[in-house]
From TrEMBL:
It comes from the Eukaryota. The keyword Transmembrane applies. InterPro entries: Papain-like_cys_pep_sf, Peptidase_C19, Peptidase_C19_UCH, USP, USP_CS. It comes from Amphimedon queenslandica. GO terms for biological process: protein deubiquitination; proteolysis. It catalyses: Thiol-dependent hydrolysis of ester, thioester, amide, peptide and isopeptide bonds formed by the C-terminal Gly of ubiquitin (a 76-residue protein attached to proteins as an intracellular targeting signal). This is ubiquitinyl hydrolase 1. The lineage of its organism: Eukaryota, Metazoa, Porifera, Demospongiae, Heteroscleromorpha.
Length: 369
């Protein structure tokens, strides 16, 4: 009797091991059973020769509904080729697609895509800047505007507000700005008399954050944001109020504070991982970054923005950089419906949340709720 029991236990164990091996193979090929399904698949992107930096950004952009919506009403050549590729990346009937239509549209704007490893963030900036230029004509630089007599008249009294005015100058030709764009505000307050200089606004399409130096082994995203926004002291700035009181030009230390002046619909956060060593070489800080699926930026907004704007965001995509400081590979974890997918060129498979949260994040895309 006991022998039979032993035998059956043996076979049972063998079956289980076999099942586990088959399950492991199935996992590698298709992802876990519960994550499988046609709806949760998207096509991969063909690598045209070191173009993973392009592919990773396109997969991330394809996961952002408000960007697709915004592009839908746009008819300029680059916008059309971008929306074509982004829509195809959400079509589960497509297999692998090529980003060539888009790279050619960029080349017509005289961008050279040489087949060297490039930075994904740089590509993201180039893409957005070129899109905007195509829609609004070349953007006027600050000096163009300052030389314009009309602007001169308007801004001469409040030089500090010049940047705000640039925003409103380009506004008429652009009914709704790109959802990836927001405004950063920086304010300076005299440490001596508390006089505040006019707040400056700067248009942003991403925020670059160093890993928190206070953290021992891992930093949290919120901590990095807090460090970045926390006030710093800037010396030797002329204070109009102190000067008036003293009767001579007086320089003071000012407290500089950064805030989000207008939160973008889609917040792109870049984690700076490159660290220069004293011997002049660059290393990559691979320490862990803890980031949330839901991010509330309420405490990082200006007081006027806090009252008007929504502050809760959901994570849509994470671009990961694998490898060293000057080479490596980009891949993207992206949302498709409520499912997370891992995408790396033509490789696409479903993953669990914890796999996303454990990746070495380089760019994080959050969409406003
Ligand atoms: C890497 O980042 C961690 C925080 O996440 C920090 O403590 C550490 O000093 C950094 N290392 C380098 C070489 O900068």
């Amino acid at each position: 009797m006991s022998g039979v029991l032993q035998d059956s236990t043996f076979w049972w164990t063998l079956c289980l091991t076999g099942a586990a091996a088959i399950a492991a193979t199935a996992y590698v090929l298709f992802g876990p059973e519960s994550l499988r399904g046609r709806d949760s698949r998207v096509p991969g992107l063909i690598n045209l020769g070191n173009t993973c930096f392009i592919n990773s950004i396109l997969q991330a952009m394809a996961s952002i509904p408000s960007l697709l919506q915004w592009l839908d009403s746009k008819e300029t050549p680059l916008a059309v080729s971008l929306k074509n590729v982004l829509h195809a990346l959400n079509d589960n009937n497509e297999v692998n697609i090529s980003p060539e239509e888009l790279t050619q549209a960029l080349m017509r704007h005289r961008w050279l895509i040489d087949h060297q490893q490039q930075d994904a963030l740089e590509f993201y900036h180039v893409l957005l800047t070129t899109l905007e230029e195509e829609m609004t004509g070349p953007t006027l630089s600050l000096s163009d505007l300052i030389n314009d007599p009309q602007v001169e008249a308007q801004s001469s009294s409040t030089k500090g507000m010049a940047l705000t005015k640039i925003g409103s100058f380009s506004a008429p030709s652009q009914p709704k700005s790109c959802p990836l764009q927001g405004l950063m505000s920086s304010s300076l307050v005299c440490c001596d008399c508390q006089h505040a200089l006019p707040t400056r606004y700067e248009s942003i399409d991403s925020i670059s954050l160093p890993l928190s130096q206070r953290a021992a082994s891992s930093s949290s995203l919120v901590e990095c944001l807090r460090d970045y926004m926390s006030s710093e002291i800037v010396d030797d700035i002329e204070c109009p109020s102190c000067s008036k009181r003293a009767g001579v030009k007086t320089k003071r230390s000012f407290r500089k504070k950064l805030r989000i002046g207008r939160p973008p619909e889609v917040l792109c956060l870049n984690i700076i991982r490159s660290v220069w060593r004293s011997d002049g070489t660059m290393v990559k800080n691979r320490s862990r970054l803890v980031f949330p699926l839901t991010l509330d930026i309420n405490s990082f907004l200006t007081t006027t923005a806090t009252r008007q704007d929504k502050t809760k965001y959901q994570l849509r995509a994470v671009v990961e950089h694998l490898g060293g400081p000057s080479s490596g590979h980009y891949c993207t974890y992206r949302q498709c419906g409520r499912q997370w997918l891992y995408t790396s060129d033509t490789t696409v498979y479903p993953v669990y949340n914890h796999e996303v949260m454990n990746c070495e994040a380089y760019l994080l895309f959050y969409q406003m709720d």
